[in-house]
Specification:
This protein is globular. It is an alpha+beta fold. The chain is built from seven helices and 18 strands. The structure holds pyridoxal-5'-phosphate and 2-OXO-4-methylpentanoic acid.
């Protein structure tokens, strides 16, 4: 089957692979790792994940590299973020070692689906933790299922490193200041569907969120963090309602290494006017340059890449630095990469 895949033209979508890996939490403990070739899961109709959204997911990638090795980017960081989500919505924490062991196992079992280096595509790894125990009252489950599947993916936005237009959304909030925005729970994404549809219907690539309380500060760009660049400084929002992006954390480190200053602080929307470059970053988005951000309410348009021009220099440097580490073309100074045996 793999020989028929058109690797260079993959979209960011689901494609069946050979195996997924699973682990159940029952009677207060995580069980053995199981391998399954079924794409289905069989759960109780009163499972807490179905009624009360007690579920979390993660997203990371494996890359086939020019030296022939397979590299996985920062799986420990995803394990830790999942643990933070677990504390946030009362699910049992999966130990980092078990998470990483399962990630490696599912990648190995589906090796034939890891796209070739030249294609620019990668293997997306999707861990999912759900409350499977039955409850009718609003209470946490006592049984959980952790499953990881993988699927080969192309770029999240068409065209890869190419500037896209975004639109500011004020009439829907993705998450509240003291809500679940810092956790990777499905409810945040359900809350984003309408805003995302509105953005697409208006002809934009993605919706752009401001803080829910004051609608004054920049929060996130759809399913990616925001960064702006000016005066050799990488500026990214500090907010209690955005997902702590592992890509963004990595870019902050790389920006410093490239000689930039890094600021993590509230960014008033008007400050967009002053940025020389802007981008969205995340596992799926990698670095996606923002061409312009339209604010239809104030009739302002913040332009970062003019029609026919190429995205800015710092963003490309950051993109290349990150890609070089992910593909093993540069030294992995920070031990971010897990190389498969
Ligand atoms: N923000 C949101 C809402 C996301 O869904 C994601 C994707 O995971 C990100 C940011 C980027 O996070 P990361 O870089 O860890 O993939
Ligand atoms: C990711 O970047 O991993 C995401 O989770 C984005 C989206 C597909 C939810």
């Amino acid at each position: 089957m793999s020989e028929k895949i058109d690797w260079a033209n993959l979209s960011f979508g689901y494609m069946p692979t050979d195996y997924n890996v699973r682990c159940y939490f029952r009677n207060g403990a995580w069980g053995e790792i199981e391998v399954s070739s079924s794409e289905s899961i069989n759960i109780h109709m009163a499972a807490t994940c179905l009624h009360y959204g007690q579920e979390a997911f993660e997203g990371l990638k494996a890359y086939r590299c020019p030296d022939g090795k397979i590299r996985i980017f920062r799986p420990e960081a995803n394990a830790e973020r999942l643990q933070s989500t677990c504390r946030g919505i009362l699910m049992p924490e999966l130990p980092t070692e078990k998470f990483v062991e399962m990630v490696k196992k599912v990648v190995k079992l589906n090796e034939r689906f890891i796209p070739p280096y030249e294609s620019g595509a990668s293997l997306y790894i999707r861990p999912l933790l759900i409350g499977t125990g039955a409850q009718v009252g609003v209470r946490p489950a006592n049984e959980f299922l952790f499953v990881i599947f993988v699927t080969p993916v192309g770029p999240y936005f068409k065209g890869g490193f190419q500037a896209n237009p975004y639109v500011v959304i004020r009439d829907y909030d993705r998450s509240a200041p003291l809500g679940t925005g810092v956790y990777k729970v499905g409810g945040n994404y359900a809350a984003s569907l309408l805003a995302n549809k509105k953005a697409h219907d208006l002809g934009y690539s993605c919706e752009f969120y401001l803080d829910a309380k004051e609608k004054k500060y920049i929060d996130e760009a759809g399913a990616a963090n925001f960064f702006g660049i000016k005066n050799n400084t990488y500026v990214t929002p500090l907010s209690t309602s955005i997902l702590p992006s592992i890509t963004n954390m990595s870019l902050m480190t790389l920006a410093e290494e490239l000689g930039m200053k890094v600021e993590r602080r509230q960014i008033p929307i008007e400050e967009l006017e002053t940025f020389e470059e802007a981008g969205a970053c995340g596992t799926a988005a990698v670095i996606s340059p923002i061409g312009r951000i339209d604010d239809l309410d104030t009739k302002k348009s913040y332009v970062f890449v003019k029609e026919g021009e190429q995205p800015g220099g710092w963003s490309k440097k950051l993109y290349d630095s990150l890609r070089d580490i992910q593909y093993g073309r540069a030294a992995d100074k920070h031990n971010w990469v897990t190389v498969m045996d």
